[in-house]
Each structure stands twice: as structure tokens, then as C-alpha cells.
Write a structure and sequence with these properties.
With about 110 residues, the protein is mainly α. It is built from 3 helices and no strands. The chain binds heme C (HEC) (3 copies). The site of one heme C has 15 residues, from helix 3.
């Protein structure tokens, strides 16, 4: 008799394989970039560096989440609007989030 556990395992395996095929094989099924979970798949345990301008408040909290609670209500791409697809390994670094997209003035550290 096949154990239910084994059946579960092979279902999971098949599911994972189809996920991989969808993710990497078929760009037709584009990922929803506004889904933060998609981003966090790769960026969850990234180092959270402070901004290059020391007078600007840091947005991400290195301990996880955001320093300002309101920022957690947004999609990653509301701020990182230069991310247009998941192939941004080369093109993303060096870009900066423009605070003025939402703020009247660039917030400064107190
Ligand atoms: C398949 C993995 C993967 C996914 C999914 C992914 N990224 Fe990235 N991202 C990378 C890699 C690799 C780099 C380049 C190395 C680095 O800076 O972390 C990068 C770089 C970046 C950078 C620049 C970091 C810097 O150092 O300046 C930003 C911002 C970013 N990604 C945002 C996002 C957002 C927003 C999403 C979701 C829409 C996302 N990423 C989804 C892999 C991924
Ligand atoms: C309110 C705007 C805002 C939102 C929302 C936001 N970011 Fe950022 N992000 C920034 C800013 C500003 C920086 C520059 C460093 C800082 O101030 O924390 C940054 C830096 C980064 C970096 C560069 C390296 C690092 O880790 O410090 C990555 C990667 C990144 N963000 C990914 C994401 C992902 C993934 C999400 C969604 C879960 C997200 N960001 C949501 C504003 C935002
Ligand atoms: C996608 C929209 C969005 C972007 C982009 C954004 N913020 Fe915000 N931020 C908000 C909202 C909404 C609030 C809460 C309402 C308010 O205080 O204006 C907020 C509040 C804040 C606060 C606390 C209140 C204050 O004004 O002092 C700080 C600090 C802050 N943001 C810093 C930043 C910095 C620094 C950047 C750019 C690196 C940035 N934000 C980019 C949406 C955004």
C-alpha cells in the first residue's frame, strides 16, 4: 500500500516542478509585481542598508519591516517604481526611490 504521506510528497513535488516551469519557462504567465510576496521570495533576508544621503531617514528597518508604519501599506513597486520585471539584477542597483512621488518635501531626519 502507498502511504498517504508519500502521495502528499509527490503531489508537493509535482506542484513545485510546475511552479518552476511556470516561473522560469514561460514569461507569458507574468508574475504580479504588486504582490509583495513575489519580491520577498528573493529579498526577505537582504541586508537593509541605510540611504546614501545621511540626512534622509532610513525607510526599511534592518530588523524587518519599515520604520514608518504607513509605508507598510504600499506595494514594493509603489516606491521602487523602476522595477519593471524580475530580471533586474543588473539594472536595479543604483536607482533611488523618489520620496517626492508621495511627499511634498523630502522628509529629513529630526
Ligand atoms: C528571482 C529573485 C528576485 C525577485 C523575485 C525580485 N528580485 Fe529584486 N533583485 C534581485 C537580485 C539578484 C538583485 C541584485 C542584487 C541585489 O542588489 O540584491 C535585485 C535588486 C533589486 C533592487 C536594488 C537593490 C540595490 O542594492 O540597489 C531592488 C530595489 C529590488 N531588487 C526590488 C525588487 C522588487 C520591488 C521586487 C518585486 C517586484 C523584486 N526585487 C523581486 C532578485 C530578485
Ligand atoms: C515607502 C517606500 C518603500 C517601500 C514601500 C519599499 N521600499 Fe525598498 N527601499 C526604499 C528606500 C528609500 C530604500 C533605500 C534605503 C532605505 O532608506 O531603507 C530602499 C531599499 C531597498 C533595497 C536595497 C537594499 C536594501 O535592502 O536596503 C531593496 C532590495 C528593497 N528596498 C526592496 C524592497 C521590497 C522587496 C519591498 C516590498 C516588500 C520594498 N523595498 C518596499 C523605499 C521603499
Ligand atoms: C508610495 C508613497 C510613498 C513614498 C514613495 C514615500 N513615502 Fe514616506 N510616507 C508615505 C505616507 C502615506 C506616509 C504617512 C502620511 C504622511 O505622514 O505623509 C509617510 C510617512 C513618512 C514619514 C513619517 C512622517 C513624516 O512625514 O515625517 C517619514 C519619515 C517618511 N514617510 C519618509 C520617507 C522617505 C525618506 C521617502 C523617500 C526615500 C518616502 N517616505 C517615500 C508614503 C510614501
Amino acid at each position: 500500500m502507498i502511504s498517504p504521506n508519500l502521495v502528499l510528497k509527490s503531489i508537493t513535488f509535482t506542484f513545485l516542478v510546475s511552479l518552476m516551469t511556470l516561473g522560469f519557462g514561460a514569461p507569458v504567465f507574468a508574475e504580479d509585481l504588486s504582490d509583495n510576496e513575489v519580491c520577498l521570495d528573493c529579498h526577505a533576508d537582504a541586508e537593509r542598508e541605510p540611504p546614501s544621503d545621511p540626512t534622509r531617514p532610513q525607510v526599511h528597518n534592518p530588523a524587518g519591516g519599515f520604520f514608518v508604519e504607513d509605508h507598510a501599506d504600499f506595494s514594493c513597486i509603489d516606491c521602487h517604481d523602476y522595477i519593471e520585471d524580475l530580471e533586474h539584477e543588473e539594472t536595479a542597483p543604483g536607482n533611488e526611490v523618489d520620496c517626492l512621488n508621495c511627499h511634498d518635501e523630502v522628509p529629513v531626519k529630526e
